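Input chain follows. Return structure tokens only.
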Amino acid sequence: MIRALQAAFFLRFPVRGLGDVPLNLIGLACLGLLGFGNHGFWFAGLGVETLYLATLASNPRFQRYVNAQAHKQVTVDVEERRRALVAGLPQADKLALQRLMGKCERIESLWQSEGDLALQTSEHALRDLQWWYVKLLIARQHVLKSDSEANEAQLRTDIETIGQELADVRLSPAARESKQKTLALLKRRAENVARRRQTLDEIGSDLARIDAQIALVHENTTLDGKPQAISADLELASRLLDDTIYGASAGDVAELDAAYASPARKVAQ
């Protein structure tokens, strides 16, 4: 109701030659000026304004219009933030995403003659898959930007070398302690390198799976000419990764996750 009142108060009406004009505000300003000469205009303006706001804000049709505009604005804001995230991706990733989105657009063009709930659900699933694809690209970029200088083979060699040195009984206590600490650090670095490689493998596998899923939907739709029952709830290995995988983009990704999952967003879609 508050949103409807605000919209009614600031509502603009199209006037030829002037564009969209806030007639309510202009009317209030005129009555306010006239009120300095005759206070009755202030009381009249208050009554008319109250009647205007109460009538328009309580109108179900106007409320639906206000909600639709709010949903539209949410959609615009979400898509702008998503495009900003995509803009920071490497060119190769942008091209891969464009190819995926092109397939999705062709799929939806084949569905245009359908208008049932199954179609809407399938369109939402396609959009969710595209969003997962973007998140995976962001995650991969962050992982690749992390320390890539560490050579796993060299780390293993260094670990073996220090292990052999520790077997020397002639080592002094201080030297042994130092080498043990160095060995512990090298093992942790080796674990990080292995985990980094595993993460990249999982992300690459999930990207390929989403691509294959959408390609299959496109093929089935081309053959059958109608929406397929698809789901974006794939058992992706990368779902187990925490939000830190997105690096500096983690906050934006979390907020867009919430926006895409909200009922308002699904209506707007």
